[in-house]
Amino acid sequence: MSDTARRQRALAMFDEVAELDGDTREQRLLALCGDDAALLAQVRALLAADADATEPFAGAPHWGAALAADATDGDVLLGRKIGAWTVLRIIGRGGMGTVYAAERSDGAYCQQAALKVIRASADSQLARERFLRERQILAQLRHPNIASLLDGGITPAAEPWFAMELIEGEPIDRWCDARRLSLRARVVLFLQVLEAVRYAHRNLVVHRDLKPSNLLVEGEGQVKLLDFGIAKQLQGTDETATHDRALTFEYASPEQLHDAPITTATDLWQLGVVLHRLLSGAHPFGLTRDTPVANQLQQLEREPEPLTRAAAQASPQQAALRGGLTPDGLSRALRGNLAAIVQACLRRDPEQRYASADALASDLRAWLDDRPIAAVPLSRRHRARLWLRRNRLLAVAAAAVALALLAGTAVALWQASEARDQARIAQRESENARAALAFLTDTLAAAAPGQAMSTDVSVRQLLDKARAQLDKKHLQPGTRGSIQRLLGNLYGALGEATISAGLFETGLRGARPTNREEALALAMDLDGYAGVLATLERGKESLATAQRAMALRRQFAGGDLYQQFLGERQLAVAYTSLADCKRGDAQWKQALAATGNLRPEQAAEAAQAAVMYSRMLFNCGEYARGLQVADAGIVAGDRAGLPALAPARADLLWMHAANGYATSKLTAGEAKARLHDAIAIHEKAIGRSGVQLGEYYSTLGTVLQTSGQLGEALEAHEKSAALSRAAGARPIDQAITQYNIGYLYRDYGDYPKSLAAHERSLAIFEQAGIEPDHIERRRSEKWYALALARAGRTAEARQRLLRLQERARALDGVDSVEYMDVTWQLLRTAVMTKDVARGLPLLAEVRARIAKFVPPGHPVFTEFLRDEASFASLQGDAMHALQAQRDALARAEAAKNDVDIAVVRAELAMMLAATGDRATARRLLALAIPRLRTAFLPGHVNRGKFELLARQLDIR
What we know:
Elements: H1 3-17, H2 22-33, H3 37-52, H4 60-67, E1 81-82, E2 85-93, E3 97-104, E4 112-118, H5 125-140, E5 149-154, E6 160-165, E7 169-171, H6 172-178, H7 183-202, E8 205-206, E9 215-218, E10 223-225, E11 232-233, H8 254-257, H9 264-280, H10 293-300, H11 307-312, H12 316-320, H13 327-334, H14 337-345, H15 357-368, H16 380-390, H17 392-418, H18 423-444, H19 449-455, H20 459-472, H21 477-493, H22 497-507, H23 516-535, H24 539-556, H25 561-577, H26 581-593, H27 603-619, H28 623-639, H29 647-662, H30 668-685, H31 691-706, H32 710-726, H33 731-748, H34 751-767, H35 775-790, H36 794-811, H37 817-832, H38 836-850, H39 860-874, H40 878-895, H41 898-914, H42 918-935, H43 941-952
Antiparallel strand pairs: 1-2, 2-3, 3-4, 4-6, 5-6, 7-9, 8-11, 9-10
Helix pairs in contact: 1-3, 3-4, 7-9, 7-15, 9-14, 14-15, 16-17, 17-18, 17-21, 18-20, 18-21, 20-21, 21-22, 21-23, 22-23, 23-24, 23-25, 24-25, 25-26, 25-27, 26-27, 27-28, 27-29, 28-29, 29-30, 30-31, 31-32, 31-33, 32-33, 33-34, 33-35, 34-35, 35-36, 35-37, 36-37, 37-38, 38-39, 39-40, 40-41, 41-42, ...
């Protein structure tokens, strides 16, 4: 009997005995197989695979492996080479082919992959077409949430194969359950699935087999979409209808079951099934592994079970896996918009489902952010409720003041009944409370949901109106102070630090708490004031205010862990504003240690603390630790259900990009992608203006600049400067933007503009009264000195750098990043002036110091090799110079920075020309000169010397 015939018989027998139990099954099985031991083993393997499944049809992917179990140990491909790959082990088998773990063995680089080979025994025309189609689809899809194609070809036995990214992950439902993710965290994770699907749809690919086993989640929480084996490309009207009936019943859409045309709506149905299971823990059609096959198709023809009903019927254990909920609590949490979103995916008519994965993602983000969704029409009352959730800062602040005033009213009335001699005082307090409440009611009326939705009233307009009215009202000092502090907090949240500080200063004057509630409310106001003072670079006042807030918390709420976190965080902010890296680091560690006690609804606060700590570490040169903090913040935010459009998420992406690129953990492309994501979140959630958006563009400019994209970098820095000016950014941010622009013009070769920008930066620091020892002011001086050196004023530059080196030694220590960096700039001036005597010791020192901060593959070591080559050439050691320069070129090519490659090639060409090898020099320079002409202006020092060599070598 052939292998194919045996497999067919095994499947038929499996189907006949699968529903039988115990002895009945065994007797029937023995009767069917007779003395064919191999056939009996295969059927038993199929039954075992089916018994191991935890969900309907989950055993199907393992049936192929079970059918071929007798051949596993003797697989002829194990240990063999296929293309550049050596087959290591079997990952799995299917009806069409085998998937192996493989390792690259051609010596080019180390890499592992999942290698898929079509089996000759399963090689039919349809199977081969499907296999090759899958390979072609993977070749055109490049997305971080889709497993990538690495290689492909045909074996000597004419078997097609391809190698793809090896994913070590768990199915998305198991991954979520293992970590007991909340509903919000599950939705955030599911948005990654939608990113992959929407990308595939944009490339005219319908997956057709979306299910948890094809949605693997890696350890850090990144989703990877796999298995495009039955995917279809929508390249013409006849392509949507297919007679390729491969499918997974459990997730099959009605049009798949009825052989109707396939569109992107098919994937939307399957996404709905997956989302239903992730949220409720149940299949929308009630399928379980015990559902007989005969009944499965019948149940799939019914209407899906509502999400809330499925959740209410969940077991306590299943509900608890969703953030510790009970079945009733889970049902309540899923009620409303989330249930409507899932229902919209599972409409039987494809035309009635979501129009696209984008539309589904948009509604899920709307649910995360408490905004109206498109799937169902909303009543005005529901819209009002959502508006209040979105504007929680304004609504809660106003409500807090109102409740405090009402509480004051009750206390005042109680006091009035206590003693006749206090009656007049109580009456006055009551009147003040009612007057303040009336003031808030009148002023905040402009925030009514109906008006805000129809006219887009901004919070800033509302606050300006309230502030103007407050000046006209006759209120008691205590009442006026409460309102001033409220407005101070709100203006601070909008980035209006100067207005906020003035309101806080008057509103806090004379405030004295008498109980715990008043003390904690006052501590929060002091936090707001301290934060504003830090923004205004009034660091010492900020620290004193933060210490006053912490004293209140210790006096009135000594055992409250959340209050401890708030106090520690504000002290850390104050030390950060003083540029005290050591004290700030210690304080941030204490603050982040307390975030473990925060509730899920405080996720944004914990995330923002991670942002501020990561940023401080970046400013202090601790890039690797800054990346770790940002990474941890992103993971914690996802687990706690931080909204996709939360500003804190954008900030975390920003700091992840900045620190990751500085440590070479991220490529320029990866860092740019994260920054573009941060910019997109900011623009959607906040708008296209603001200081923070300017900082994102500033970091983007730096990444573009160091990766050789100087024109785009200049645009990003100029946009950053414009945003900072328009938003009234604090002086230090404006000064940093200017020195970034100066740094860029220096690299571009426009030295007059570079010096002018650096001088503007230093003038801003001076006018703002920022102390000379502030780390950012010293950096501004450092970059000015380097611009002076490039402009030919090397003696002046060196003297400035020597003074800065001594200040770094005294303020930061010789093991600091700042001391190392100033020493590096001194090395650069030595290279420019061809000062070998000073340069060689500096090169040795900087190489040793920088190794503590960046990995061995960092691009900075390419520059050190160039310096080594330059000094060797000046000493007449041509062989050493050429070897060092060739090593530098190899590093530059590995890093794939085309500007660096061009510069290093041109320098190598100069050395070769000096040794008489004009032919090789001409070839190298001909490769380099076109890129140099686009990267540098004619006045750039490098461009000038390379153009001279080009003329000598007759290169046009």
